[in-house]
Amino acid sequence: MKVAVVGCGGMGMWHAKSYAKMPGVELVAVCEPVFEQAANAAKLTGATPYETMDEMLAVEAVDVISVAVPTYLHKEIVMQAARAGKHVICEKPIALHVEEAKDMIACCEENGVRLFIGHVVRFFPEYAQMKEQIDSGRIGRAGVANARRAGGHPGEARPWYLEADRSGGVIMDLMIHDIDYMRWTLGEVKSVYGMNRVVGTTDYALVTLVFENGAVANLEAFWGYPGSFRYAAEFAGSDGLVRTDSMNSQSLQIRKSSPAEHGGKAVEIPQSPSFKDPYYVELEHFLTCIREGTEPRVTVQDACRALEIARAALESVRTGQAVTL
Questions:
Q1: Which of 119, 193, 300, 324 is deepest in the core (most CB within 10 A)?
Q2: Are residues 105 and 190 part of one domain?
Q3: 8-22, 214-228, 269-283: which has the minimum mean pLDDT?
């Protein structure tokens, strides 16, 4: 299976390196408007670098395109890939607006290609194991959940993150991980209430989700956190408690950042203490779904629903009122 990666920033490099070592996969091309970044990715992976999608598509015969460009460009790049007849793996969130997401899904369907969205938390083993424990009834009926995700502000490395109309801010870009996971674990969301405080490179949000089954989840997301990236989640049930905390689950703590551009700052990429890299497992899973025609662990409908909930949280922040879905 021949794969190309569009976008050679932090996540794009992660995609490229994963494909380069994946059995049964050939990374044939990397594409990035800043050609120096594309050339660097090519040097590390053995792929051919390109500056534009048009040039790459005219030369390379690829089966799948991985899209790791800034969020505000997702729709444009995904639809260009779909119209070229290529399957698409796109980083989360699917888009900034629900209408854009629906256009992307429709375009892929019309062109007979599949679209996958990288909600990678479902592939973190500790999160998958928590869901298994809850689904098995081990802690009884889960009624209250808390999740926290915090790290440095990525806008210090890439300024577009500082622009809410391009990144969606901490709720859309970071908290959406936990929004998707909570919905996967607890079911459909009935109402959303959100608070958000932004001062310079500090972006903090607290969102409460009420689910149709009566469960409640409180989600925190924090850009500008002074320590290294961390995440935690906890579920309280009628018969017990299950939790994970990235700071407690590692006997050896490792902090990794994507390669710095021109000697500057870099966007930190969350790590799991597991033996297998969750990002690699996720990409391998999506390619298997294409080969075998099977359904993925996270569907485009799941990604669209997570986006709807995130947008509802932003609306609640704006109005100060809870939003009913």
A1: 119
A2: no
A3: 269-283
In this prediction, residues 144-164 reach a mean pLDDT of: 95
Q: Are residues 298 and 262 in the same domain?
A: yes
Q: Are residues 153 and 199 in the same domain?
A: yes
- Which tens digits make up the pLDDT trace of 22-51? 999 999 999 999 999 999 999 999 999 999
Query: 223 with 315, same domain?
Result: yes
What tens digit of pLDDT does each residue of 86-113 get? 999 999 999 999 999 999 999 999 999 9
Per-residue pLDDT averaged across 270-293, rounded?
86
Structural domains in the chain (count): 2
Query: Domain span at residue 299?
Result: 121-324
Res 276: pLDDT: 78
Are residue 292 and residue 246 in the same domain, yes or no? yes
* Per-residue confidence band for 254, with pLDDT thresholds at 50, 70 and 90: very low
The CATH number for 142's domain is 3.30.360.10
> Per-residue confidence at 227, pLDDT binned at 50, 70, 90?
confident
Bridge partner list, 91: 118
48 with 140, same domain: the answer is no
